[in-house]
Design a protein that fits this description.
Blueprint: E1 4-9, H1 15-24, E2 29-35, H2 39-49, E3 53-54, H3 58-62, E4 69-72, H4 79-88, E5 92-95, H5 103-116, E6 120-122, H6 130-140, E7 147-155, H7 176-192, E8 195-203, E9 208-210, E10 220-222, E11 228-235, E12 240-246, E13 257-261, E14 264-268, E15 278-281, E16 288-291, H8 304-315, H9 323-342, E17 346-347
Parallel strand pairs: 1-2, 1-4, 2-3, 4-5, 5-6, 7-12
Antiparallel strand pairs: 7-13, 8-11, 8-17, 9-10, 11-12, 13-14, 14-15, 15-16
Helix pairs in contact: 4-5, 5-9, 6-7, 7-9
């Protein structure tokens, strides 16, 4: 089997599950080397996962002819800077979400990738998991009739009480929509198709935050982004949906993602995960029934999208995780704040068409 070699820029908290899955699960990708601004983190990763190369910086990584794909695991506001330099060096790029911190940056990345004929895309890849793929099959096969609407909620009180370094969540490129919105919007467009227009109302309820976790206990954070975001979406299909993301509200459970149809209602599992319970309400039943998962990858399968990227490059087929998706999601998310500031509906310029669903008979570690 052909294998594509991956160089990783950024070895922070999220890198652990990527490294575990790339080295132990997925058959068509291999980590060739890593780098990080904090060299000790990169050294630990090299030692723990037996990685062949440790680069002094990202430019040394980009200059390595053995690297096929750059996996960008830096912080959100750094995504653009790393991805643009990787593309300039002729490397395919798979980035953690979001694609970039702004639409303008996203447009630059897309333009350069198209000019060079390179793959550009990225997370989230949770929509490829058993949960969302099962929901897509149920919707596409008419189990809720004609989709009419949807509602998505991500409610919590932020990260400063538990995250070791939470400041970036409240800075440029952060906030609940840019941080968690990609999971919800990506799930919705893969279930319902592209978004035509949006409206939004946004605010920051608290101008500062105080970190109570270690090691930065007591440090004040100036909040630079909206932390309370209400959005409305009109899909190309005519479906209308609402989305609410916030770091301002106390809530004891994870709220639901729901799809409403002419003949039933579907409760979708948390799109931040790959599996989770699915519940279907049909009028003839009168109660919710749990639906079994019909696909593989129900466990934490981060790097599944990277494997899909490698597969699409090697087989010259359409990737499920390309910039056509990540840019559309970025435009939708940024447009909520634009709508709020300008007090109007905002039309979405980019177009999105769903790619093929996952195969239900895949062996673990493989992609079709």
């Amino acid at each position: 089997m052909d294998i594509m070699k991956v160089g990783i820029v950024g070895v922070g908290d999220i890198s652990g599950i990527y490294l575990q899955n790339i080295t132990q699960v997925f058959k068509n990708i291999e980590v060739i080397g890593v780098c990080d601004l904090v060299e000790e983190k990169a050294i630990r990763a090299v030692e723990k996962y037996n990685i062949p190369k440790l680069y002094k910086d990202m430019y040394e990584l980009f200059a390595d002819d053995e690297v096929d794909i750059v996996l960008n695991l830096t912080r959100p506001y750094e995504h653009y800077g790393v991805s643009i330099e990787a593309l300039k060096a002729g490397k395919h790029v798979y980035s953690e979400k979001p694609l970039a911190a702004t639409i303008a940056q996203g447009k630059e990345l897309v333009k350069l990738a198209e000019e060079k004929g390179l793959f550009l895309g990225g997370a989230p890849d949770t929509f490829l998991g058993a949960g969302i793929q099962t929901c897509r099959k149920l919707i596409d096969n008419g189990f809720i009739g004609k989709p009419l609407g949807a509602a998505a909620f991500m409610i919590c009180h932020g990260h400063e009480s538990w995250h070791p370094d939470p400041e970036f969540y409240y800075k440029h490129g952060g906030g609940p929509m840019m941080d968690m919105g990609p999971y919800y919007v990506t799930a919705l467009i893969n279930l319902l198709g592209g978004v035509k227009s949006v409206a939004g109302m946004t605010k920051a309820s608290f101008p500062t935050r105080t970190i109570t976790s270690e090691p930065l206990n007591g440090k004040k954070i100036e909040v630079d982004v909206p932390t309370y975001v209400l959005g409305l979406m009109e899909f190309d299909s005519g479906v209308t949906a609402s989305i609410f993301t916030t770091f301002d509200v106390y809530y004891d459970t994870q709220a639901r993602l729901e799809i409403y149809g002419s003949e039933g209602t579907l409760i979708v599992p948390d799109p931040n995960g790959f599996g989770g319970p699915i519940k279907l309400l049909r009028p003839e039943e009168g109660v919710y029934k749990e639906i079994p998962l019909m696909f593989n990858y129900s466990e934490n399968s981060r790097a599944l999208g990277l494997s899909d990227c490698a597969n699409s490059i090697m087989k010259s087929c359409n990737p499920r995780t390309s910039y056509k998706q990540t840019y559309h999601v970025l435009e939708v998310m940024e447009s909520f704040e634009k709508s709020s500031k300008e007090r109007r509906f905002v039309d979405i310029e980019s177009k999105f068409e769903r790619e093929r669903p996952m195969s239900s008979d895949l062996l673990k570690g493989y992609i079709d």
